[in-house]
Specification:
The chain is mainly α. The radius of gyration is 26 Å and the shape is rod-shaped.
């Protein structure tokens, strides 16, 4: 009688260890994919952000577009995912926009925005 009880307790322990192991492995593999956007989604978000923020008649100046884009989490995330810039340097993203002809003046350059020369040379 004692042996039957011991066998079931061992079985419970083995099953519990197996469940914990499977849970740990699945968390390890899936944790990297949560919170990140795919490359295709990043391209789509980036293209729509470029179309939105690089309209000279809407934002008029680089500074206005830059300020608006910093508050767009999707655009910043897409920019970071594609390796174009980061949250602190969203203006680097505008350099990658093919149709970005925002007015960049010397005052913008003096404020410490980096990579603005590339925008002025294209426009």
């Amino acid at each position: 009688m004692k042996k039957g009880l011991a066998l079931s307790l061992n079985m419970i322990i083995i099953v519990a260890i197996a469940v914990l192991t499977l849970a740990s492995i699945s968390i390890f593999f899936f944790s990297g994919s949560f919170g990140q956007i795919s490359e295709a989604e990043a391209q789509r978000l980036f293209s729509s952000g470029c179309a939105r923020y690089c309209q000279p008649d809407l934002y008029e100046t680089f500074r206005n577009a830059y300020t608006a884009s910093q508050n767009d989490h999707d655009f910043v995330s897409a920019c970071e995912r594609l390796g174009y810039g980061d949250g602190a340097h969203v203006n680097r993203c505008f350099e990658r926009c093919s149709n970005c002809f925002l007015e960049v003046n010397q005052d913008d350059i003096n404020r410490g925005y980096d990579n603005l020369i590339a925008l002025t040379e294209r426009g």
